[in-house]
Amino acid sequence: NNKQISNICCIGAGYVGGPTMAMIAQKCPHIKVTVVDLNEQRIADWNDADLDKLPIYEPGLADVVAEARNRNLFFSTEVDQAIADAQMIFISVNTPTKTYGVGKGMAADLKYIELCARQIARVAKDDKIIVEKSTLPVRTAEALSTILNSTGNGVEFDILSSPEFLAEGTAINDLQVPDRVLIGGKDTERGKAAMQALVDVYANWVPLENILTTRVWSSELSKLTANAFLAQRVSSINAISALCEKTGADVDEISRAIGADSRIGSKFLKASVGFGGSCFQKDILNLVYLCQHFNLPEVAAYWEQVIKMNDYQKHRFAKNIIDKLFNTVSGKKIAFLGWAFKKDTNDTRESAAIYVADELLQDRAEIHIYDPKVTKEQIIKDICHCEEERRGNLPESETTKELLKRVTIHSTPYAAMENAHAIAILTEWDEFKTYDWQKVYSEMLKPAFVFDGRNIADKEELTTVGFDVYNIGKGK
Ligand code: UDX
Ligand code: UDX
Ligand code: ADP
User: What region holds the UDP-glucose/GDP-mannose dehydrogenase C-terminal domain (predicted)?
Assistant: First the structure.
């Protein structure tokens, strides 16, 4: 007598909630899916008839939204109504790192989650299954359960943890054919029934053998562990890239050689200017905080090193630009190709580009930025935010204004590169490989430098054209 789910609500219409619900709606026409958010602009954008206006850029997403929207997929700001109507509620709100108080800079800030829980507790009139989709520290489900089940009004909540493993830029494919779907629940009759209800939703398109059920804590910790392992691979290959640059080995050759070992595997071994994105750093900091909390300082230090190595890599890239430009970039024009934290997304959270720009701006460079998908407003916001953080969250001041005078954002790549002293490639957008480098070279100052933070440019071609090319992990 399993509960057949016919009405789902998702709180949070961001990079996780939006695409995930669009996919569920597309695959399950019999389920009404309502995505709610407090942010009215965001909801308006999701509802925009012009699909180019969707708030997030993700290849293939517009087609999925076009098919399901206003059929069984709805975007709304009526949070209470959607909660009241739903049998199953996904929580996909943001969980940034705390910027204040206990656990500042490390622990996840659960205030948005807590607000959701209190809102659900207030509004719900019948039993509901609550699914945590945001990445949360272990035992959040317990906290959720405490808040939800303290209303004393007889309504019961079953809490599941079902972390989302989609990566941005490939979200639609990751949702369509996931390596696995993970569902954590309680080992009780009710817990099992709740898990089954969610299994049944996914079973509409995911083979049963790819749907794993575990205990809640294992599910929560699996998500942190998966991201920590992935980030660790990037930091590991980046650590080797530094050694390659000193010794003349080629890190891409090393990646190929070690990736051929099936125990290591070939994916996620691309040396780069450093990883970014909303998850890796946040989740590792979370893991570190947990380890410290449980008095495991050696384990905490082990994982913290992954972040330190990433910071080092970003710094190394910026410093190399300054070094090679004769030890100063003051007044020099540096063209940035890419601002997003990876290709095929307009997301810039924790993007290495922000860090590199900051370091070059501190050395008084002039930065000219081009990214195919990131808006001008977002780039300005990122630069201001970074500057304010450095100065301890002081309100916008003269220094920020001064800084922005040295930042120009372009809508075409060639304009960004014209008269530049150097080009820095920060994101691996495919279109960067297609440029007319002869033309770019002829319009740049000489010597013309290229710092390829993604190893995507054809080094031989560029060198033949006349560029002075520096890569990640390739000795000169
Ligand atoms: C290793 C490399 O695997 C091999 O490619 C290289 O040529 C020599 O070094 P070896 O030391 O013979 O081979 O054995 P391996 O299977 O790698 O195990 C090494 C150690 O790691 C063992 O003590 C093993 O028990 C341990 N191990 C391995 C684990 O604890 N967990 C694992 O998942 C795998
Ligand atoms: C990650 C996880 O992959 C995903 O499973 C989880 O749900 C969310 O976090 P995401 O941050 O969207 O996804 O992108 P991902 O492809 O993992 O890339 C993260 C960062 O690592 C990017 O900045 C990327 O450029 C960098 N990276 C990745 C490398 O530098 N080298 C690699 O080989 C892979
Ligand atoms: P993620 O990458 O985890 O999806 P985002 O920041 O892209 O994170 O999306 C989270 C969304 O959740 C934001 O649009 C934010 O406005 C929304 N949100 C946060 N708290 C609430 C809440 N209490 N009710 C509704 N929406 C919320």
Answer: 335-459
